[in-house]
Amino acid sequence: MAALDEPLKKILGGTTAKVLAEHLDLHTVGDLLHHYPRRYAERGELTRLADLPLDEHVTVVARVADARVHKFNAGRGQRLEVTLTDGSGRLQLVFFGKGIHKPHKELLPGRRAMFAGKVSVFNRKLQLAHPEYALLDGDTDGDAVDAFANQLIPIYPACQQMASWKITKAVDAVLPSAQDAVDPLPEALREGRSLVPLTEALLKIHRPDSKADIAGARDRLKWDEAFVMQVALARRRLTDTQLPAVPRQLVKDGILDAFDAELPFTLTEGQQKVSREIFDDLATEHPMHRLLQGEVGSGKAQPLDALVLTPSGFRPMGEMTVGTEVVVPSGERAVVDGVFPQGEREVWRLVLSDGSTVECDDEHLWIVGSRETGERVLTTRELRADLLRADGRPKWSIAPATPVDLDDGGERPLDPYRLGRSLPEDGLPAACRNAPVKDRRAVLRGLLDAGGEASGAGDVFRAASGPLAADLAWLVRSLGGAAQLQDTGAGGYDVHVALPEEGAGDAPGFRRSIRAIEHVGRKPVQCISVAHPSHAYVTDHFTVTHNTMVALRAMLGVVDSGGQAAMLAPTEVLAQQHHRSITEMMGELAEGGMLGGAEQGTKVVLLTGSMGAAARRQALLDLVTGEAGIVVGTHALIEDKVQFHDLGLVVVDEQHRFGVEQRDALRGKGKQPPHLLVMTATPIPRTVAMTVFGDLETSVLDQLPAGRSPIASHVVPAKDKPHFLARTWERVREEVEAGHQAYVVCPRIGDEEDAPKPGKKGASGGNDAAAAASSPEDIAEKRPPLAVLDIADQLTKGPLAGLRVAVLHGRMAPDDKDEVMRSFAAGELDVLVATTVIEVGVNVPNATVMVIMDADRFGVSQLHQLRGRVGRGSAPGLCLLVSEMPEASPARARLAAVAGTLDGFELSRIDLEQRREGDVLGQAQSGVRSSLRMLTVIDDEEIIAAAREEATALVGDDPELTGYPELRIALSALLDEEREQYLDKG
User: Fold this and answer.
1) Which run of H or E residues covers position 288?
2) What's the pLDDT tens digit per position in 359-403?
3) Which UniProt keywords apply (predicted)?
């Protein structure tokens, strides 16, 4: 047996080994040697007491400021209270009963010592109850002083049963075995990176003589973890390239071409790049494994006060909701099928040749044309970089929208021509602008006959008032013409008008060139997607924009090749939204085999766990026969009875919501391993992608959302300040009275199925004495999570009495859920009390406030997703995070971080810093049993990137690692049976 594999029991004895195994998961000499100090205390240095984390076992070095014995119970009981100080804060120690005698003699004012215990709160003060301690000066405890004779004192991650200095003694016992450590790094790599040998690193990390020793040891040990992990992932990627898969070549004149043929433009450069990467991977004989970051179909945004053309006239972007009818450039009507607030962004103003302007963000898409390139789709950023020709003239022009009939429902004069002849100085009634084409032409003709004169190829209207000039230009642009205002300097405008010839049928109107792009500043913005093959809509001054969907094109390409594509969504709500969006975007192409369906079309089916038996049987039949080319579903897709005819592509939406086992179960349904496209809208730092998703090639869409629209977030300390909670419900009532709606989110449903089991830790009704002895955060954690059904009942009978309140949760019947969401979206409900079923895919722009009960029970990314449900309209959003946790607790620090920023990337970094990365090669989602002891993916990006390059090159040259036996040993230690299975399935 190798020295580092020796059980600790043989070296340390059974009692110590048992504590290390049960409480710190340390079983062998190697485990203990890799249990590194958390930090180091210097002789004479006092640790900052102000930074102590609540509810954690800590070791501190501090000086005694005061020590007093207090009597209680009529003198029958006594306790010793010791106050520590370090200049930054104070900490109280408390000892009871007979345990006070020894510390009372030793912990005298001025004495410095090390103390270890669990930080709790009593009377709003931090304290350690009955801590262990070791004196650091004086001669009262010579053994303790000798144990910490080094200049730098290692402070180990400890537990209540094993203080840091006891771990130090255990490490001393096994440290000689470090000489037998097998060095996994190739000698050339170690020398090339100037890294110390592993044996030296282990000795210096545990017993350093200087800070330079610590730095050198840390660098070396971080490289060990990064390199061995990246070798494992590199071998996994290499193995994947050896697996057989059915190549999915693009097919001419298939369903994808038919879909693309409806697009009057090319994709943006970013979308083209991502599509090329995906289709190149799909065409290979090995499975694609690609991570696509970005909220696909969104990201191109306009300010909330930008205008969108609807059948009744222009409405502000901020008023757009799912289901709103809009006008597409061809003149047809379509509905908005997605609303995507994008937070505050830098906004630019396009200035067109007729003087009209349109505001948008840098990612906004414009259908533009030029003599050199023909028609293309370019972002604002791309236009800014290539705006003018060499001679300084505008390069790009924007096509007009087809004139359409409008009707705002108002009364119009019987004779629109006579209205125009009357020359209304105050402008035209809205009903005469938002009118049928023939009426708008009549009004315009009346205006020009009364006040216009011929001018070249058009007309000029002299000295119109400001309101009339603006309405005249509006009418001209609505009819496909061009109108330019020229200030006369006397309070009026000359309006130059050019119109397409009447009766020209489908002849195009006048194109307007883009003369300049000006910076406006930061504004709240959002974008919409439109359920129409063109994915386009008409915005301010009758200009045209659009959105598109990358993942759908990948699925259509696989269907063309004879395969099937499955999209796995985390919730029924999101699965239904994807299914509805895909079928609406595809139109008749989604009706393959059906009456009226396109010849090259296919079926798009939905499969969820709560579907009716008949619909479910038909969906399963369509899948096994191949009638359905695309299926959208939830976890129901993973069930054994679900069989595919030829599964070619698996698209996983919101990857962070699925475990590896679930992903693997769906991939296992292909005759050969299907291709895999993983999508996530949750921002992932590059380092996380390189570690957690190291087996996936990564694509990032440029239009990643930067957050959500303006949302004020605040923590509500319900326990400390109950009047804050009362004020929370007042704010909800105020928003409802202002015509808005509210969400209240709870972590639990509250029916019998999810109630805490009797006697289970955390159930109510436990031992009162135990509860009284617990810290406030213990009590808050042990209380059952607040439940939807209970909170809804309390609110309707109490602070929200009289409001229209409904509940929504995952165990409701599908029809009932749909009815509640429909009623809430229609404004028929004031408050929706729900579980996290509303986390994704729910768009109700009129909802402006969200109250999250027991917010500390949710993760950072989940809180970020939840609050994205408000602030989706023109009104700002408010998110109130209710918690009973004490102010100094890590949970409250996490909530404060969420309240402090809307930046998804920043929050993902905070989440990682607080929770750690988790076992990146195992199934754990958080840091309970991380394989990373020294490396942190947030801080060590350069090491991870360099290790990935080195590992990829080494594995490419020697896949079996035959020339690196030490590395093979380290790899075997890293890849225990569980992780090996994980990598096999990944």
Assistant:
1) none
2) 988 767 777 878 776 666 677 877 888 888 888 889 998 877 788
3) ATP-binding, DNA damage, DNA repair, DNA-binding, Helicase, Hydrolase, Nucleotide-binding
867 touches 708 (CB < 8 A)? yes
Task: Determine the Cα–Cα distance for residues 192 and 266; give it in Å rounded to an integer.
Answer: 48
Q: What is the C-alpha to C-alpha distance for residues 591 and 571, in angstroms, rounded to an integer?
A: 25
Answer yes or no: are the C-beta atoms of 328 and 537 closer than 8 Å: yes
| Residue reference for tokens 């890799």 | 34
What's the Cα-to-Cα distance from 778 to each of 53, 771, 854, 857, 891, rounded to whole Å? 14, 8, 14, 13, 12
Helix and strand counts by DSSP (H, E) for the chain:
32, 37
Instruction: Extract the tokens encoding 446.
Output: 């009346």
- Which tens digit of pLDDT belongs to each residue from 649-659? 988 875 544 44
Is residue 256 within 8 Å of 556, Cβ to Cβ? yes
Query: How far apart, in whole angstroms, are the C-alpha atoms of residue 108 and residue 82?
Result: 9
Asked if residue 510 lies in contact with residue 478, where contact means CB atoms within 8 angstroms, the answer is no
| DSSP letter for each residue of 516-531 | EEEEEEEEEEEEEEES
Q: Which helix (H) or strand (E) covers residue 907, if one does?
A: helix 904-915
Question: Which of helix, strand or coil describes residue 162?
Answer: strand
What single-letter amino acid sits at 548?
Answer: T
User: Residue 603 contacts by C-beta under 8 Å, 6 or more apart in sequence?
Assistant: 590, 591, 592, 593, 594, 622, 627, 628, 629, 630
Predicted TM-score of the model (pTM): 0.52
Q: Is the pLDDT of residue 443 over 60?
A: yes
Q: CB–CB of 479/404 below 8 Å?
A: no
Would you say residue 932 has pLDDT above 50?
yes
Closest CA relative to residue 875, chosen from 526, 529, 540, 538: 526
Question: Residues 65, 42: contact at Cβ < 8 Å?
Answer: no
H helices of 645-767, in order, are: 660-667, 686-691, 722-737
What's the DSSP call for residue 265?
S
Between CA 39 and CA 343 the distance in angstroms is 40
Pairing, β 125-129 against β 90-96: parallel
Which residues lie below 8 Å from residue 513, measured CB to CB, with a gap of 6+?
352, 353, 394, 396, 397, 398
The sign of the torsion formed by the CA atoms of 545, 547, 553, 556 equals negative
DSSP string, 743-778: EEE-SB--SGGGSPPTTSTT-SS--HHHHHHS-HHH
Token reading at 752: 């019998």
Residues 937, 944 contacting (CB under 8 angstroms)? yes
Q: Which structure tokens are listed for 414?
A: 């019987």
Q: Is 653 helix (H, G, I), strand (E, B) or coil?
A: strand
| Among 178-182, 253-257, 344-348, 470-474, the least confident range | 344-348
Burial degree of 455 (CB within 10 A; 0-12, 13-18, 19+): middle
pLDDT of the residue at 532 = 65
- Bigger pLDDT: 163 or 416? 416
Tell which residue, 339, 382, 325, has the closest CA to residue 538: 325
Structure token pair of residue 332: 């047809």
Q: Are 858 and 852 in contact (CB under 8 A)?
A: yes
The pLDDT tens digits for 882-926 are 999 887 777 888 888 888 876 655 666 666 665 554 444 443 333
Tell me how far the alpha carbon of residue 136 is from its chain's centroid: 48
**Residue 728 clears pLDDT 80, i.e. is over it:** yes
**CA 10 to CA 764: how far, in whole Å?**
44
How far apart are the C-alpha atoms of 178 and 183, rounded to whole Å? 11
- Fill in the DSSP letter of residue 636: G
- Phi first, then psi: give them for residue 409, nearest 5 degrees: 85, -5
Tell me which H or E stretch contains 848.
Answer: strand 847-852
674/141 Cα distance (integer angstroms): 67
What is the C-alpha to C-alpha distance for residues 868 and 845, in angstroms, rounded to an integer? 11
- Could you tell me the CA-to-CA distances from 48 to 45, 91, 109, 215 in Å, in that order? 9, 10, 18, 22
Which residue is listed with tokens 């840390």? Answer: 218
